[in-house]
Amino acid sequence: MTAVRAATRWISSGVMSRARDLASLWIVVILLGMIVLFTILCPPDTFLSFANFRSITIDTSEILLLAAGQTLVLIAAGIDLSVGSLVIFCAVISAEVLGAFSGSASQGYPNVLLGVAVATGASLAAGAAWGFINGWATVTLKVPPFIVTLGTLWMALGLAQVISGGINVATVPPQLQDIFVFGGLLGIVPWPDVIAAIGVAILWIVLSRTRFGLRTYALGANAESLRRAGVNVSRHTILIYTIMGVLCGVVGIMDVARFSTASLSAHQLDNLNAIAAVVIGGTSLFGGRGHMSGTVVGAFIPAVLRNGFVILGVQPFWQNVVVGAFLILAVYIDQVRRGGVPVWRRKRSAKEGEQRA
Amino acid sequence: MTSEWQSEPRPLLLNAIGLRKDYGHVRALDGVDFDLRPREIHALFGDNGAGKSTLIKIIAGAVQPDSGILEIDGREVTFSSPHDARAAGIETVYQDLALADPLNAAENVFLGRELCYPGILGRLGFVDRRAMHAMTAANLRDLGVNIPSLTVPVETFSGGQRQAVAVVRAAVWGQRFLIMDEPVAALGVQQTTHVLDLMQRTRDEKGLSVILISHNLTEVLRVADRVTVLRLGRRVGTIAAKDATATLLVGAMTGALNMLGEAATL
Question: Which residues partner with B77 through β-bridges?
Fold first, then answer.
């Protein structure tokens, strides 16, 4: 482990300290190493092929959007456990609205465009509303976000079950799936990828180039100092959770378009998957530090692993084992890079240091 | 310099008259007068519970007095929040520094007051990092502060360097005067010297006045122009720093001596 220590020190002393936007380099190396390894091990033209990369990126698109939002939340020293349930809720709303506005199924859903438009609006609005509730309860009721979003996790899931009567909603025009999954931008880039790329790009720029992004870092690092500087910290917090909610709305309608059904069970682990991707990507659970680039890499690792294992004939469940180990390793390496003091002990030792000086 | 302001009185930057503040049945301030002149470092000295914190919190807008008057440049003002005080050009350096550790010095200086590009980009909230760095670098230079780098997190700085960043931030945004609460309490000897020098340059280069709270007599006497001693919520007196000695101030602070007498009418 001394080698790891030395290597990470070396990396962090040079490039890393200057380029905030750069991912933790080691995780990039690991992802590239995995791709190389699977390319060598898998039969030719299976892993390393256009069709396969297409399927990996489509598989990753939804978690990528959620992880991008979760990056903002974690940097602001919050956490959102409700995202999976919000996706389910928004998907149910989307499917119900699609069924209601697209015309009758027997006529082949003649008003599908209207249906999609209204469903998209409804899904985003539903997500925004849940996100707003998360943020509002955090700042006004002063209940920790961990608890608030655990609460809305159950509320949103329960309401989704109430609205759907506990069964998957399948009132979705089938042509939607044809366009969304099998079509694409210029006929090549699948629409889920396009949406994920746009969403991630916007959030990346917002986080690294705008006042909103800077204040998000400051909020996670020292909310009190931001408040003293005259910033409306509550408003900023609510906005972050609302953005997270809107992203859940985007994923909700995407998911319905992709699978032609609103599943009540499919997304229940999305919250933990998204948080794992963000943390593997080097964002601190304690706020104030993190990069969107790391999140992008972190989001792809599970999908690449699962895909490679399937092609190799290894049980894909091994993916969970490996990702879990990466999660621990990621936080360990991060701590070493920051000088060996675990973040949760840092506050105390910093104070001791001041007293000594 | 001190003789100059003694001979020809200039208008007061700040004039507080008869400030009173009760917390429950505890009287934290009992009719305290306090004034601040242009380009002076005015130290507040007193034991724990003397009312120093309450006084600066009132001036910084964080606490509202039960009675008494605050005048800025001869005009009466009411601060109902720290925001009002900031708008009046008063910046406070708190004891905890209020730095965001993972952010760099420029980002901390512009925390909450980021510089945006002109035009549409600025409307969209795009920050002009280059301008923020340039302005931070210029201000650090003016005030003679050396920090390792503008682009590394301030958590990598020493205590004195962190203090310097907080002071520079206050000096950049303060239009009238700064309030510094125990700026060197946690620092070593050399770093204390640096921060005190910085305080003097803030006065001399930026033309800002400073209200300095400190327990450290040597430091108070080294940089201050005047010293006000508080005891049990009352002002014992105000005296020119050059006329003060440690024995005198400690005596006044503890109530053992009651001798500020004539000097108090300064």
Answer: B70
- Classify B10 as helix, strand or coil: coil
Of A17, A217, A222, the CB nearest to B99: A222
* Signed CA dihedral, A17, A21, A26, A32: sign only: negative
Rounded-to-integer distance, Cα B257 and Cα B266, Å:
19
How does DSSP assign A219-284, residue by residue? HHH-HHHHHHTT--HHHHHHHHHHHHHHHHHHHHHHHHHHHSSB-SSTTTTHHHHHHHHHHHTT--
- Chain segment A122-131, per-residue pLDDT in tens: 999 999 999 9
Q: In what order do the strands lie in the sheet with B26-36?
A: B26-36, B14-23, B67-72, B75-77
> How distant is the alpha carbon of residue A219 from its chain centre?
20
Integer CA distances (angstroms), A178 to A34, A35, A174, A175, A182, in order: 32, 29, 7, 5, 5
pLDDT tens readout for residues B148-206: 888 888 988 888 888 889 989 998 888 899 999 888 877 788 888 888 888 898 899 88
**Residues of chain A with C-beta less than 8 angstroms from the C-beta of B151:** 17-18
Q: Give, rounded to a whole angstrom, the gap between the first and last alpha carbons of chain B.
A: 15
Is A38 buried (19+), middle (13-18) or exposed (0-12) by CB count in 10 A? Answer: buried
The nearest CA of chain A is from the CA of B46 a distance in Å of 22
Contact pairs from chain A to chain B, CB under 8 Å: 77
Domains of chain A: 2-343 (1.10.3470)
Could you write out the DSSP letters of every residue in A32-75?
HHHHHHHHHHSPTTTSSSHHHHHHHHHHHHHHHHHHHHHHHHHH
Q: Which DSSP helix (H) or strand (E) runs through A27?
A: helix A25-41
Of residues A138, A13, A135, A96, the one with CA closest to residue A262:
A96
Contacts of A229 in chain B (CB under 8 A): 98, 111-113
B111 with A224: Cβ contact below 8 A: no
CA distance A178 to B250: 85
Cβ within 8 Å, pair B99-A225: yes
Query: Amino acid identity of A232?
Result: N
Q: Residue A197: how many CB atoms within 10 A of its CB?
A: 17
Distance between alpha carbon A175 and the CA centroid of its chain, in Å?
28
Contacts of A212 in chain B (CB under 8 A): 125
Q: Are B92 and B179 in contact (CB under 8 A)?
A: yes
Q: Which residue has the higher pLDDT, A274 or A7?
A: A274
Q: Which of A23-27, A79-83, A330-334, B89-93 has the lowest mean pLDDT?
A: A23-27
Expressed in angstroms, the distance from the first to the final Cα of chain A is: 32
Please give the pLDDT value at position B9: 57
Lowest mean pLDDT among A17-31, A196-210, B12-26, B100-114: A17-31
Q: Which two tokens stand for residue A192?
A: 């889920």
- Half-sphere exposure of residue A68: CA atoms within 13 angstroms, side-chain side: 29
- The pLDDT confidence band at residue A5, using thresholds 50, 70 and 90, is low
Q: Are A100 and A119 in contact (CB under 8 A)?
A: no
Domains in chain B, CATH or no CATH each: 1-89+178-183+207-266 (3.40.50.300), 96-173 (no CATH)
